[in-house]
């Protein structure tokens, strides 16, 4: 038996956990599963070598030397025994991590649209989010009519049918995961609809102006490439599809409500004039992954004041600021 009881240091980490649940990328068939926080057990035989332990932890986790670590001391006990099954309680991890400005939610790094973890900080919240700050093809963008490539362009082929849906409040938006045979065909590839969700005001700007809201319809092809169709929403008459979705609105974050079978039909969200702007961009939420084909329909759809109000009561502002074009061409279908 050692004369001094070793400390068990459990590391509760927002740092280094996997990224799950970006708004623009969650597959409909796979609900985001909160990953357990990583736990690393390291023994310190005295308080004097705490710094050394910290250095070991940093090295083990690949954390930069100056980066602050959050450590929960869970008590004393015999070396090795029972440590493998111990995990820090989620609330302790969250409260500890909050002090470093990286609050954990079920093992995910917390980000938001304002404050310390707002868009200007996304790129620094974890290494996987680097591209939010460093990427050169980020979304959303401001589309200037006078600066587009105007000309003929293929029609977007929408093939949407009656489908099943589950409405989710994911803490960043209201999202509907879609199960059904819904595809678009564009640029010679077929993309399947995974989910759609909303932002207010619209993230994309046209001539410096945002719409009241936007719906993002997220599709993926067999090669794993993403194509997002943006439908701008302006105040007017009520939209029937949004009426159905709002009817099954979840009550709190991470609450999910299954809609009646085949109630969803995304055709109800599409304008009759389907001319568009198109450009390459990124997810507009962390991890801001690039290589996303963006198509913004030029004709807005209408929503009622009441429909708009309900969403803004939940999310008053969930739009990322516009990002630099960096010379990207924007195509404008005539
Ligand atoms: Zn979006």
TrEMBL record:
Residues 1-22 form the signal peptide. Pfam families: Carb_anhydrase. SUPFAM superfamilies: Carbonic anhydrase (SSF51069). GO terms for molecular function: carbonate dehydratase activity. Residues 72-103 are annotated as: Disordered. Its EC number is 4.2.1.1. Keywords: Lyase, Metal-binding, Signal, Zinc. Belongs to the alpha-carbonic anhydrase family. This is carbonic anhydrase. It comes from Rhodoferax saidenbachensis.
